[in-house]
Amino acid sequence: MMKRIHGFVGQHLTGFRKKAVRKDMARHQNILFIRPTAVRTRCKLFLLLIITCVLAPVAHAGAVAGSRPPYHQRDDVQAFVAEMSRKHGFAADELHEVFAGVEFQASVVKAMEPPSSPGVRSWERYRASFVNQRRIERGLGFMQEYAADLKRAHAQYGVPEHIVAAIIGVETIYGQNTGRYRVIDALTTLAFDYPRRAEYFRGELEQYLLLAREQGLDYFTVLGSYAGAIGLPQFMPTNVRKLAVDFDGDGKVDLRNSVVDAIGSVAHYLSVHGWKTGAPVASQVMFDGTVPAEWLQSIQPVMTRDDIRQVGFSTPAPLDHTLSFAVIPLETPEQPPEFWLGFENFYVITRYNRSTFYAMSVLQLAEALYQRP
Q1: What is the pLDDT of residues 200-256, one digit of tens each?
Q2: What angle do CA 159, 162, 164 make, to 5 degrees?
Q3: What is the domain partition of the chain in residue ranges?
Q4: CA distance 157 to 265
Q5: Of the chain's two ends, which shows fewer C-beta atoms within 10 Å, N or C?
Q6: How are beta strands 338-342 and 326-330 bridged, if at all?
Q7: Helices 133-145 & 147-157 angle (0-180, nearest 10)
Q8: Percent over 90 (pLDDT), the chain
Q9: Among 55, 264, 39, which Cα is nearest to 146's?
Q10: Partners of residue 151 on adjacent β-strands
Q11: In angstroms, rounded to a whole number, what is the distance separating the alpha carbons of residues 59 and 49?
């Protein structure tokens, strides 16, 4: 490069004084060869500019998050601590220390919020997520491995083996996905930073603190869902304390590590909520005419055969006139809806999760497990 520059300058020496040439050469050299210290300075400035542009949004987000006072310094949390101390005898200093270690989880709040652009409900898409070969194969293995425990739960609580297995399969794929959030973080975030359901989650936080004290658990090591559900069957803390059972007989209830406790607890939960041994769960129905909209407003089984006779219907088996049911629509875009009659046991499954899609997925996964050898 310098040879070409020197050559270019040399070709145009005529008529110029040597001094002028030297000054011109010096000017070109200053342009082409920046001093090392200048290079370092300019590089530092350039890197600083890049870092500022890239990290400024992150720093801003951190500043916003940092502006949130620690939980143990908040008035509402301190009032909660005082209440826990008064009602349950917790040491206030202990709970202040606990809440000093709790971290706000923005992703928990986001997960609880309804989508800004909700998609159209699709039973076909929902079903494919839960009634699939993966869950069926794992479920068959689960039922084989824990056959004796499932049979004992059936005998004690009246809930069929395949129903219990299906619920655990839908909830956590038989323990494969029990949640990644610290339960204390999730529940505290929802109790104090999710106003829509703050009262409910403060109750669950209260129950979690009691559960941890009773079982000698480290408040910070129990993991669960973004809503604070725990273990293979995803029980909320209230249900862990009230409805979970020590089914393996080791003297403690452990839904995170004891599959047998999970099996017994699911069966007990359904039994307490009214499971009727030997009664049907649901039946598909075909209507001859238009289904009145008011039939689809409730999932409680309050209708009878006489109520739907006016429209005309058919079911795979004769419908017992003593059975009560709800008419359950299962809708998929661009397809005619499926209609099912959800009996009392179907309603009991919705006590585990209120979604009719959920309850039907449990039923159909259970049927797949029952029908496979």
Answers
A1: 999 999 999 999 999 999 999 999 999 999 999 999 999 999 999 999 999 999 999
A2: 55
A3: 2-32, 36-67, 70-120+179-229
A4: 10
A5: C
A6: antiparallel
A7: 80
A8: 79
A9: 264
A10: none
A11: 15
pLDDT tens per residue across span 6-34:
333 333 333 333 444 344 444 444 433 33
- What is the spatial distance between Cα 212 and Cα 217, in angstroms, rounded to a whole number? 5
Cα separation of 57 and 301, whole Å? 53
Query: In this structure, what token pair is assigned to residue 72?
Result: 């143990």
> What values do phi and psi take at 283, rounded to 5?
-145, 135
Backbone φ and ψ for 160, nearest 5 degrees, come out as: -60, 150
DSSP per-residue string spanning 3-24: HHHHHHHHTT-TTS-HHHHHHH
Q: Using one digit for the tens of pLDDT, what is the confidence trace for 255-296?
A: 999 999 999 999 999 999 999 999 999 999 999 999 999 999
User: Taking 60 as the threshold, does the pLDDT of residue 156 lie above it?
Assistant: yes
Amino acid identity at 97: E
∠ CA 92-64-222, rounded to 5°:
45
Q: Which residues are catalytic?
A: 171
| Rounded-to-10 torsion of CA 351, 353, 354, 359 | -90
Q: How far apart are CA 171 and CA 80, in angstroms?
A: 31
Q: 3-state SS of the chain: helix, strand, coil percent to 5?
A: 60, 5, 35
CB 340 within 8 A of CB 283: yes
Question: DSSP readout, 77-113?
Answer: HHHHHHHHHHHH---HHHHHHHHHT----HHHHHHHS
For the chain, how many residues are written?
373
Q: Are 244 and 207 in contact (CB under 8 A)?
A: no
Tokens of 45: 């400035």
Residue type at position 71: Y
Residues 6+ apart with CB under 8 A from 258: 247, 248, 250
Amino acid occupying residue 325:
F
- In this structure, which CATH number among 1.20.1250.20, 3.40.720.10, 3.40.50.261, 1.10.8.350 belongs to the domain 70-120+179-229? 1.10.8.350
